[in-house]
Design brief:
Elements lengths: L8 H11 L4 E2 L2 H6 L13 E3 L4 H14 L3 E4 L16 E4 L6 E4 L4 E4 L5 H8 L4 E2 L12 H7 L6 H4 L6 E7 L5 E4 L13 H4 L8 E8 L1 E2 L3 E9 L2 H13 L6 E5 L1 H11 L6 H4 L6 E9 L1 H18 L2 E5 L2 H17 L6 E8 L5 H15 L5 E4 L4 E8 L4 H20 L18 H4 L2 H14 L32
Parallel strand pairs: 2-4, 3-4
Antiparallel strand pairs: 1-2, 5-6, 6-10, 7-11, 8-9, 8-10, 12-14, 12-15, 13-14, 13-17, 16-18, 17-18
Helix pairs in contact: 1-3, 8-13, 9-12, 13-14
Length: 487
């Protein structure tokens, strides 16, 4: 750990006088814990503020503007792009203790504080027959404020939409310290400009969320889960596109390429499908399909899926038993950690491509593997084109690091050429800041910066994030074990 450098000592002293030492923490351990997210690049803040009341947030922001102190907002730190890392130091507003959840079962709404863990929102909604559909892989650990800040998606996004589709209203503070409310806890609201959606996905650069009203939907009455094997990556992706043409509207459709499956099989010590069942010793690509809805409609969709299976899959399994479904999902839950058998470090990019580009993308990842000698396991959400392309490498090998940096630049360039997007659910942060201008024209970036300057004239909120390219490969991650690492 590095001792926090007090470049704003007078401002921090004034902050301590205003809020007190129980809310303004400057010790080394607290500052270090707030210095990184899941990307694990550490940038030490000068102080960590744990507000007791909403007005405390206003106090912090007004002081920060007066003294030009950088401010970063933090929830649970599960983000993967460095967006909650205080890269310019200054102060961190830590909101993980703001976790109140209130369910309105009649309106099918939840009013939540930003530190509420997403899975716990569903725990509170379930007794009322409701749930909040967005389900990032860190759902048991991530906070709703971070989900809103990145417009998170997850496995169910193709059917149910992303976070933006499930937010009725937001409350919080402008970077200058004024309290605002965007929209209201109403099913219809069109008064004024829609600044609510401007905050969603802004990665903490345009304001501080203190409360959100969320849309809940009825829990599906039934689910059916399928696991399929395909002889090639291309075959699995072509089958996925054909499944979407059947208009089944799957709740989940996950793709794991052969590199990913091979790594997962090694970690599990068992084949996903026995060789005798496949009629081959070769590793197969995998699709995981989950259908949900009314039992009658689900039965009809399952029948269509079985007809599709007969045409495309080399082997399959299905179940409507929740415990058995969990066993089918084990391969997906295993794959991320299993990849470390292919290298002790990885660059993970959550790109999105249209259906027509699925096969060209997976072929390109294999071409990179063969050309650079680095594994490129790829998995993701085949129902909406949001794939996680990984570049595995040895961090202690300088040549490996150089090749990994080259590979990720090439992947991002290729994704844009294929009509895709450089991020689908993780956001830009600092991790993708070198690639923002691959995706956006100068006019587009200029318009975004104009909005930023209008709301944050002194540039105190999350400075350096998104718009200023950072060569992240010059920074070495800290070695820490985080709560979600075992998952």
């Amino acid at each position: 750990m590095t001792t926090p450098v007090q470049t704003h000592p007078k401002a921090t002293a004034e902050l301590l006088r205003s809020l007190g030492p129980s809310r303004v923490l400057t010790d080394e351990a607290t500052c270090f814990a707030a210095s990184f997210d899941n990307m694990r690049l550490s940038f030490m803040p000068e102080a960590v503020v744990r507000p007791a009341a909403e007005e405390d947030v206003g106090v912090v922001l007004r002081l920060a503007n007066r003294h030009r102190v950088p401010v970063t907002v933090r929830g649970r730190g599960t983000g993967s792009t460095g967006a909650s890392s205080p890269i310019r130091g200054g102060w961190v507003i830590h909101l993980d203790h703001w976790d109140r959840i209130e369910i309105d079962p009649v309106s099918a709404m939840a009013t939540v504080q930003p530190g509420a863990i997403t899975a716990q929102i569903n725990d509170a909604a379930e007794p009322h027959g409701l749930f909040f559909p967005p389900d990032p892989s860190s759902i048991k650990h991530c906070s709703i404020g971070g989900n809103i800040a990145t417009n998170a998606g997850g496995l169910r996004a193709a059917k149910y939409g992303v976070v933006r589709d499930h937010v009725y209203a937001l409350e919080g503070f402008l970077p200058t310290g004024e309290k605002v409310r965007w929209a209201a806890p109403l099913r219809k609201f069109v008064s004024g400009l829609n600044l609510r959606d401007l905050w969603i996905g802004s990665e903490g650069t345009l304001g501080v969320i203190t409360s959100a009203t969320l849309k809940l939907v009825p829990l599906p009455a039934a689910r059916r889960t399928f696991l399929f094997a395909f002889r090639t990556d291309e075959g699995a992706l072509e089958a996925a596109a054909e499944l979407m043409r059947l208009r089944l509207n799957p709740a989940v459709l996950e793709f794991l390429d052969t590199q990913t499956v091979a790594a997962a099989e090694r970690q599990r010590g068992a084949r996903v499908f026995p060789s005798a069942e496949l009629g081959s010793e070769e590793t197969h690509a995998v699709l995981l399909l989950e259908l949900d809805g009314h039992p009658a409609a689900l039965a009809d969709d399952a029948a269509k899926a079985r007809q599709w299976i007969a045409r495309y899959a080399a082997a399959s399994r299905e179940t409507d038993n929740p415990a058995e479904a969990e066993r089918l999902w084990d391969i997906r839950r295993t794959c991320s950690q299993a990849m470390y058998a292919l290298g002790n470090a990885k660059l993970n990019e959550d790109v999105v491509v249209p259906f027509r580009s699925y096969v060209p993308l997976i072929r390109y990842t294999r071409e990179l593997r063969d050309r650079l000698g680095l594994a490129t396991p790829t998995f993701g959400h085949a129902a909406d084109g949001n794939f996680h392309v990984h570049i595995m490498f040895d961090r202690d090998d300088a040549e490996h690091r150089r090749k990994a940096e080259t590979a990720i630049h090439e992947v991002m360039t290729k994704v844009v050429e294929l009509g895709g997007a450089i991020t689908g659910e993780h956001g830009i942060g600092i991790a993708k800041s070198p690639f923002l201008r691959l995706q956006h024209t100068s006019a587009e970036v200029g318009a975004m910066l104009a909005v930023k300057r209008a709301l944050d004239p002194n540039g105190i909120l999350a400075p350096g994030q998104i718009f200023e390219p950072m060569n992240i490969w010059e920074h070495r991650p800290v070695k820490v074990t985080l709560p979600w690492d075992k998952h």
